[in-house]
Amino acid sequence: MYNIVVDPGKLPRADTLVDGTDMAPIVRGWVQPGAKGSISQLSQETKGTEEKDVALIDNEESVHADAVTIVSSSATTASSTALSSRRSSFEDRAPARLTRFTPPENFGTVVDGKIFRSSFPQEENFSYLKALKLKSILTLVKEDTPEPYARFIAENGIRHYRVHIPANKGSVCISTEAMVQALMVVLDRSNYPLLIHCNKGKHRTGCVVACLGKVLGRNLSQIKEDYHTYAGIKARALDEQFMEAFDERSVLWMARFQGWVPDDEPRSPLSSRTQSPRQAA
To answer: Where does it primarily localize (predicted)?
Structure first.
């Protein structure tokens, strides 16, 4: 066995060229390389001029071996704006594996690969939603759709449904009719993958998902536990009151038609008061 001892003092420094030129001052920005690699001290006037001459490099092909780019604090605002623009441009051109994916707040899966829930999507969430290959979006608030969101929906060929589900504040404000309209969209398999969202993704979305759970035969305690998972300390007793009172038989025929529940369940006593989409048309 041999012990190899290396004398650190005899190794070339990382900031020293092969010919012995000390590059440390250049690395620290104190001096700039002159012609043919010689080093000359920057005068105060030259340094001020050089700091204003900021070059942003688009790609590797535009980099030259003898080019030195200096970015000073005086160019912070302009360079930050330019870099932000270039970053956005890069993300547009980047392959999917390099794209930043940020889900909306309170995002979750309701039914694997079919139904999702979230808060109101923002621009930084669009790449994530695009990866889901959404076919439909159900919005539960009546506010106008922001222009960037409307453009995202149109560019990706997404069907956009809007059913206004009022917030249960002060009293139970959600009507059975409004919930039935929302569930008709949610139960329709031709809308999948589907995203359901309100503003925060807690209360209105939570009520729709809870009522869907009742239609699918889930245990009420599990439904409430799921509601609290997203609502947290903001959970509303009036929301739970509505969940308990909602009669899932009002949309049971649709659940049967779409194959969500077997056809041997009791028929809905509300069928005469609830129009099908064909009847409503």
So the answer is: cytoplasm
Tell whether 3 is covered by a domain: no
CATH number at residue 116: 3.90.190.10
pLDDT in tens, 7-40: 545 544 544 444 555 555 544 444 444 444 444 4
CB 199 within 8 A of CB 211: no
Contact 187, 255 (CB under 8 A): yes
- pTM for this one? 0.62
Mapped onto helix, strand or coil, the DSSP state of residue 107 is: coil
The residues assigned a catalytic role are 198
CB contact set of 113 (below 8 Å; sequence gap of 6+): 192, 193
Distance CA(137)–CA(158), nearest Å, equals: 7
In the chain, the number of structural domains is 2
